[in-house]
Amino acid sequence: MFQVFKKLDWFFKHYWRRYTFAIIALVISSAIGLIPPKLVGYVIDRIQFETLTMQLLVMIVAGYLILTIVHYGISFLWDYTLFGGAVILERWTRSKMMDHFLKMTPTFYGKYRTGDLMARSTNDLKTINLTAGFGVLTLVDSSIFMLMIVGMMGFTISWNLTLAALIPLPIMAIVMNKYGAAIHARFTKAQEAFSEMNNEVLESIRGVRVIRAFVQEEQDEKRFYSRTNDVYEKNIEVAKIDALFEPTMKILVGLSYTIGLGYGALLVFENRITLGDLVTFNVYLGMLIWPMFAVGELINILQRGNASLDRVNNTLDYQADITNPDYPQTVREVNTIDFDAVSFSYPSTNSNQLTDISLNVKKGQTIGVVGKTGAGKTTLFKLMLRQYPGLVGAIKMSGIDIDSIELDEIRSWIGYVPQDQMMFSKSIRENIQFGKEDATDKEIYRVMELAHFLEDIKQLPNGLNTQVGESGVTLSGGQKQRVALARAFIKDPEILILDDSMSAVDGKTEAKIIEHLRDERKNKTTFIAAHRMSAVTHADHIIVLEDGKIAEEGTHEELMKLNGWYKEQYQQQQLADDGEVRS
Length: 583
What we know:
Keywords: ATP-binding, Cell membrane, Membrane, Nucleotide-binding, Transmembrane, Transmembrane helix, Transport. The structure is a single chain. By secondary structure, the chain is of the alpha/beta class. It is built from 23 helices and ten strands. The strands form two sheets. Strands 6-7-8-3-9-10 form a six-stranded mixed sheet, sandwiched between helices. A hairpin with a 2-residue loop joins strand 4 and strand 5. Helix 5 packs antiparallel against helix 8, helix 10 runs antiparallel to helix 12 and helix 12 runs antiparallel to helix 13.
């Protein structure tokens, strides 16, 4: 049960001063809270024996008020310090998770879905926060505070009465332990169900246009109802155990009250304790209710916290597939890029996606990469970005294997525009500035001209300040591609990779962008993957991939002379374009 505290020992060790102060202040506050019942019993005995004077009563009331003020001040200090530490843990863990997410490769995101990661980053972290705050409070109150009350009852009133009143405690410990085990198992299932629901909601929101286009709203509602019903049922199972805590505690506390009152009255009749002692004892017994409840709350919180911490640690323990080298080498300038017999297969497959790829690229060259869908174009670029392990052969930059170069250094050279453009839910200006944080509007307009986006920006309601919406929902496919191109252009990278990133623009617009590229990218290396052959005709070297192998390579003119797949595709596309122009 206390494993969760052991798992969090790294945090408690770092903030041991904060937690030591909070616990000491909590204990002092609890000790002060034990004094007023003794004052009440003392006053009752004075009244009974007619020895209470006005002066004594004023002193007792004044002392009571002073104790209340001091108790309030100390309570504020421990509350602020303890729960402030819990908030720090939540912030720290959330930052740690975000940092971990940014280091992860596509393999990780293939294993964990977005909704699951969101659930772990929200619900589970809140539960861990509760463990580090309220969990520590209940631990202290259910142990130290309880012992303090028992000590006061035993040493200052009667041990016989105290032990008799505490007979239900062992029963409570056994029952609570069983409840705790059930809570852990059921809460884990409930959190997993919540993760699944998150995933489905996220997919429904992202695919809302497709759902409407296929008139699947009713079916999607049914799926969502089924998923929410599953979450509801699993949380009800947790609530059933939760609901047993309070009644069980009330029964046991009621039993303690019954024993205390009955046996205590007998001791008063036998003059073994005074009436004031009996009143004080019952006040202490009332104060003992919270520590008893705290035992149940502690078990509940620790089991939930343990389940959530296991889920979070399971995510954080996932080792990155790609890491920085132990002894990195520095490349001052990328003069050449060499693919030396590169072969590769994805972790989840048994067949190669790339086989024996050899290519020499000099600085300033434009390389065209074409081929059928699934031929391996995107895979080739992902290996350049070091997104996957398991590469056979070598990719070298200026003669240095990329495995020997730091990841940040490699990626700082590269501007990458993927097939699926990611637009952030910000303005167009902010989306473009993602490539260069301090870019001025003048620079932004310049790259928008290169990306042939100036006319579009004039038609948008707020110009550069236009909000693109969730994943760029307010922009067309072609507009998103051109904003993504502008974002890469403003970075002005040494190596620019365009992975079929002009598929949604028309041939005329594509031709203008390519023309701007040729003028802008002189003496800088560019890779262009495309299904439209016109996008790569100007390239210094073109490779045709087929089933992960280089089937043809050369310049446009050389490939046309080969009478192979490239020539066939080029001629078909030219005929199609001519037909469109005539129509």
